[in-house]
Specification:
Elements (H helix, E strand, L loop, with lengths): L4 H23 L12 H12 L9 E5 L1 H6 L2 H10 L4 E3 L7 H14 L5 E6 L13 H5 L8 H7 L15 H14 L1 H14 L2 H6 L18 H6 L7 H14 L5 H5 L6 H16 L7 E4 L4 H7 L4 H15 L3 E4 L22 H27 L6
Parallel strand pairs: 1-2, 1-3, 3-4, 4-5
Helix pairs in contact: 1-8, 8-9
């Protein structure tokens, strides 16, 4: 008996229906509890779970940003200062965070924690140069995204049908594929890793404590790219991370754009104009009661002198200035906080991140500028509400 057209159609559509069903399951966070804790997505899952814990039932202020503010801002100190005033200040910074993540995360917070009054967004001046930070950021946003976030994500990570790493722009199943594959290779190892993180990385630690940071850069130096010469001559595993950073820094130093010419009316490349517009759009959309405080994080001298483009610092301020003029944001510029210090090597543990000493120095600078925000919030919270 020959199959009917309907039966043929059903046979042809069955694989697509199955794929759609699997996609729907992954999109509903089915896989989150099994995610690799040390991955970008796993870090986001851990943060998301912490934000659902009773310790985060009410949040007044948050800190957002990449690993720079994660290591560079004293989260424990700000949590304590807030607690003294009857407030809650939580650290939500994550490695790899860029503007796409900030957009998705702040929208998620608006839905899940609408009580947030304000907060700090820690960025560096080079973060204003590109609309996206790479396809890896898709993993960071995966646990927080909804279908409505897809257009925003697509503006930051261009989809390329030939590049599987970009398929996560539109597909949760594609984004989780490598994590699922790794799990299937060794399920017991994954379960052991998940168990360890659940026992040792508590919501309290995630939201209100500082990450551990040891060492400094005084052996190799930090004043110029020549510090990489000695580092690249080593082969030991202890310097593997620094060698990777040296490759990144040398690559950036080979193509240093002239922002000064653009600021004086020259042509602005399309990706740079897109980055400027996306940043402004993102920051205008944040509907906190207090304007977000944009902290430009300290960078070692070699970044501004040897690596970044001419007047890149001024370009970052140019992007932010209209929003500051509108009262939408407040800017605290710590870019060159350590640059006049001959011993700045003692404040960083690599070319990007402050150590505990650098964190303490930045905190001493931030404290008098941010404490009034806590005081005002505490005073407002203490005013009794009159019910009529």
């Amino acid at each position: 008996m020959r199959p009917t057209r309907t039966r043929i159609a059903l046979i042809l559509l069955a694989p697509f229906a199955l794929l759609l069903a699997i996609e729907s399951l992954f999109h509903t966070q089915l896989w989150e509890r099994h995610a690799q804790p040390e991955s970008h997505a796993g870090t986001s899952v851990r943060l998301k779970n912490a934000l659902g814990d009773p310790v985060a039932k009410h949040i007044d202020f948050v800190t957002l940003g990449s690993s720079r503010p994660e290591y560079g801002i004293d989260h424990a100190a700000w949590a304590a200062r807030a607690r003294e005033r009857g407030l809650v200040d939580a650290n939500l910074s994550m490695p790899g965070t860029h503007w796409m993540t900030l957009g998705v995360l702040t929208r998620w917070l608006a839905r899940e924690h609408p009580e947030i009054r304000g907060g700090v967004i820690g960025v560096a001046i080079q973060d204003f140069s590109n609309p996206g930070n790479g396809a890896y950021e898709l993993g960071i946003v995966q646990p927080f995204r909804t279908l409505a976030d897809t257009p925003w994500i697509a503006e930051h990570v261009p989809f390329d049908i030939h590049d599987l790493s970009t398929w996560g722009v539109y597909s949760s199943m594609a984004e989780w594929r490598s994590d699922l594959r790794e799990y299937l290779r060794n399920p017991s190892k994954r379960r052991e890793s998940i168990r360890w993180f659940r026992q040792n990385v508590t919501p309290q630690r995630t939201l209100f404590e500082n990450p551990e940071s040891k060492g400094d850069m005084c052996t190799s130096g930090l004043a110029s790219l020549s510090a990489c010469d000695a580092i690249e001559a080593t082969t030991d595993d202890a310097n593997a991370g620094l060698r990777r950073q040296c490759v990144e820094l040398r690559g950036m130093a080979k193509s240093r754009p002239d922002y000064d010419a653009m600021l004086r009316g020259g042509d602005i490349p399309a990706p740079l104009a897109q980055a400027r517009d996306l940043v402004r759009t993102q920051l205008r959309e944040i509907a906190w009661r207090e304007p977000p405080v944009i902290v430009l994080m300290p960078v070692p001298t070699l970044w501004t002198r040897d690596v970044l483009g001419k007047s890149q610092h001024e370009w970052a301020l140019h992007v932010l200035q209209p929003l500051a003029d509108e009262g939408r944001i407040r800017v605290l510029d710590a870019t060159n906080l350590f640059s006049r210090d001959a011993e700045e090597c003692s404040d960083f543990f690599d070319f990007y991140h402050q150590n505990a000493a650098g964190r303490a120095r930045l905190d001493a600078w931030l404290e008098p500028q941010l404490e009034p925000m806590l005081d005002a919030a505490a005073k407002q919270k203490a005013i009794p509400v009159t019910v009529r």
